[in-house]
Structures are given as C-alpha cells and as structure tokens.
Amino acid sequence: MPETIDWIGDVTLAHQRSGKENLPLFLFFCSPGCYFCQKMESGSYVQEKVIRLFDEKILAARITPDDPAWFKSYDVRFTPTCILLNPEGGEEERSTGLLEGNALMAFLLLGLAKSYYDMGKLEEGGECTEILTRDYPNSAQAPEGFFMRGIFRYHADHNRDHFKESFEILHERYHDSIWMKRARLLYLYPCALFRWQTFRDQKGDFWDKND
Known about the structure:
By secondary structure, the chain is an alpha/beta fold. It is built from 11 helices and 5 strands, in the order E-H-E-H-H-E-H-E-E-H-H-H-H-H-H-H. It has helices at residues 11-21, 35-42, 48-57, 68-73, 101-119, 122-135, 142-157, 161-173, 178-188, 192-201, 207-210; strands at 7-8, 25-29, 59-63, 81-85, 91-96. The chain has a 5-stranded mixed beta sheet, sandwiched between helices. Strand 4 (81-85) and strand 5 form a beta hairpin. Helix 3 packs parallel to helix 5 (101-119), helix 6 (122-135) crosses helix 7 and helix 7 packs antiparallel against helix 8.
C-alpha cells in the first residue's frame, strides 16, 4: 500500500482515466491559505484507511484557484469542497467544509455505494453500505447509508423485509432524518423502488416530487 494518496495533477487527465479505468473520481477543491484544507491535508488524507480506500477504489485530483474554470464548472464557491463523481462524470456526493478522517470515510463510502449502484456493481455497493452503517453510524451519511443498505440487500435476495428493517432502524435512531420518511415510502410501497431506479437512470431527482 502506498504511503500517500496518488493525486493526479492534470484534472482533464483524471476525468479521462476515470472513464477509461471505470473508477470513481474524487475532486478536492482547495486553496493554499485555507485552514481547513490544510487540516485535511495533514490529518484526513494521511490516515491509513483513507489511503487504502483511494488506492483500491478511487482516483483523486486536487483543484486550486489556479484553475478557476473547474471551480466555475462545478459551481464551487468555498474551500474545502469535496465531490465524488462516477466514471461517467455524474456527481454522486458533495461536501463543503472540513471532513476529518471518519467523516471523510463515511463520505467516500456513501459516494462509492451510489456510484457502484449506477454502474450495476451491486455487490461492491452493498459492501460499502455495510461498512458505512457498521463503522460510522454517527456520521452525517449514516441515515442515507441505511436507506441504501436496504435497497442493496433487497437486490441480493428480493426480500421486501429489508425495506421494513431500514425504516425501523431509521425511525428508531434517526427519527428526524428525511431518510426515515423516504425509507417509509419504500416500506409501504415497495414498487416505488422501480420508479426511483428509473429516475436515477434518467439522472433525475425522484425525491423532488415524492418527499
């Protein structure tokens, strides 16, 4: 395992490699004078588990204000901003502000899970949600992680009880989360999964009309 993350210096090349190698791409928007960017550089990105995850599953590129076109292209106004893209260039997850080690891991695992889902890699995506919900249950991404875990588990054995389990966990632990309400929809109307899937395939927002 390498000792550091292998940052790709050319962002255009990073996009090309992402599509060619069929790997998600992590974009780190940062600036030299940003205190929280420096905190991520010296803390979050040097953790062994973070380096391993990048080494095995994710390409990474830094973007500084020296490349303002990329900031404009992704509508980034503050640093640090982290974005995870699928190999087609679609945005799966975004965060603005400091992500310390565990928070960064949760962010990456959820983004990977959604990316793998869209790539049709259900086993790999399901593994990401299992790790996320087991190891980072207090993270901001955990509620959506439990929601996605129910979907991955359903695809594995077509047992609708997984939707019930997701809803019950979210109702008990994350009662105020929007993902509890969304899990309730799948629990009561499992057929909504296929509408949700159609919206994802068409790059639309299913929840915009169904929350």
